[in-house]
Amino acid sequence: MSDTIAAVATGAVLSAIGIVRLSGDGAIALADTLFRPQSGRPMRESEPRRLVYGSLYSRAGELLDLCLCTISRAPDSYTGEDTAEFQCHGSPVVLRTLLDELFALGARQALPGEFTKRAFLNGKLDLTSAEAVADLIEAESAESAKNAAGQLAGALGARTEGVYAALADISAHYHAVLDYPDEDIEPFRLQAYERTLEDAAEELHALLATYGRGKLMQSGIPAAIVGRPNAGKSSLLNALLGYERAIVTRVPGTTRDTIEEKLRLGRICLRLIDTAGLRETDDEVERLGVERSRSAMERAELLIAVIDGSEALTEEDAAILAAAEKAKKAIVVLSKKDLSDSAELQTTLPVVKLSSVTGEGIEALGAAIEAMFPLPEVPAGGILTNARHAEAVSRALGSVEAALQAMREGATPDIVLTESEAAMAALGELDGRTVREDVTARIFSRFCVGK
């Protein structure tokens, strides 16, 4: 018997529709207690996954809402349990009142991610697919959403399952020969599996190589806008955001601190950091801002070096260009194109001429940054975006490589098998076959209530 949980699945804000969901052995009975279908046929007799129109009442018989209700029966539901869902008008008061009624009838408040956790525990989702649910909800770009949807459909598991199965075959053959010496089993020859281990290492290495770009795709690319005072940095930030986030004046040194905002530019998600103008100054506050700017430059994956294109290049500009040349990735923006379009630079970095006033060049800047951060050529869902996944794949790869090295050095089969089985255990952590309970609890704690 499972206790019945309930939660608002659509958030506590005004909306056209608000959804309250239940899961557990008493879900359908609770729906029948409060919901009266217009047809007169109780929900326990309703077909699964069919929306039914009716009236929602309190225990005291007061009308709460006219809404829709649907049920699913175990095991053919999202959680693998009996479920019910009310689609009400999106008044937070109505949804809260409905929850209170359900709690009074014996349901309890669902914990964060508990519906999806039950789906995992009941075998409806593996752990990578369950985590993809949260990633899909939190996706901030079309690419992140597409990759999360692929992982929800099992794409990541498909990439690792072949490796796991190959390692399991090696282990099964070895133990079969060891445990049943009198049976007619093909002799275990360790060298026959060298190609298998090499293929496993190659596949895991290729998967792990997607993590660097996947992490940036998921969380956004840290990009620092740098330049001397009044070069047009804050104007560029405002133009990219579409509103005046930073104060812009003709007075040099207006920006005294870093300003951070996240935005989509084309297909790329950027975590933009507008920095104080880089220059030597005796002003204590501005000097602290400059120090923070230099720190932001060191952390950034991308430097956007802004040079005033309406003026001659200064020593400060030259120093900024030199720093950009040493950065992980950098692009130069020649600003104030509306004032002058004649400025030219000698640099190996990509250069975009841009006007923050007219918006000319913004699209070209987005295209140039996209070209600098291409996505790996793998099917949707095959990109690692999760640090837990990357760490598990890294350990599995290390164990496979150790098995190969032991084999080539003439080690006994049991040593090679120990490393192979360690790789299997690491891969098992991805889908939850070997994951610890405390890790599972930590994973689902990041989910919102109602999912």
Protein topology:
Elements: E1 5-8, E2 15-23, H1 27-34, E3 35-37, E4 52-57, E5 63-72, E6 83-90, H2 92-104, E7 108-109, H3 114-121, H4 127-138, H5 142-152, H6 155-179, H7 194-208, H8 211-219, E8 221-226, H9 233-241, E9 259-265, E10 268-274, H10 284-299, E11 302-308, H11 315-326, E12 330-335, E13 351-353, H12 362-372, H13 387-408, H14 413-431, H15 437-444
Parallel strand pairs: 1-7, 8-10, 8-11, 11-12, 12-13
Antiparallel strand pairs: 1-2, 2-6, 3-4, 4-5, 5-6, 9-10
Structure description:
The chain has 451 residues and is of the alpha/beta class. It has three domains: 5-110, Probable tRNA modification gtpase trme, domain 1 (Gyrase A, domain 2, 2-Layer Sandwich); 142-210 and 381-444, Four Helix Bundle (Hemerythrin (Met), subunit A); 217-372, P-loop containing nucleotide triphosphate hydrolases (Rossmann fold), CATH 3.40.50.300. It is built from 15 helices and 13 strands. The strands form two sheets. A seven-stranded mixed β-sheet has the order 3-4-5-6-2-1-7. The protein has a six-stranded mixed β-sheet with strand order 9-10-8-11-12-13, sandwiched between helices. A hairpin with a 5-residue loop joins strand 4 and strand 5. Helix 6 packs antiparallel against helix 7 (194-208), helix 7 (194-208) runs antiparallel to helix 13 (387-408) and helix 13 runs antiparallel to helix 14 (413-431). The chain is flat and about 80 Å long. The two termini are 21 Å apart.
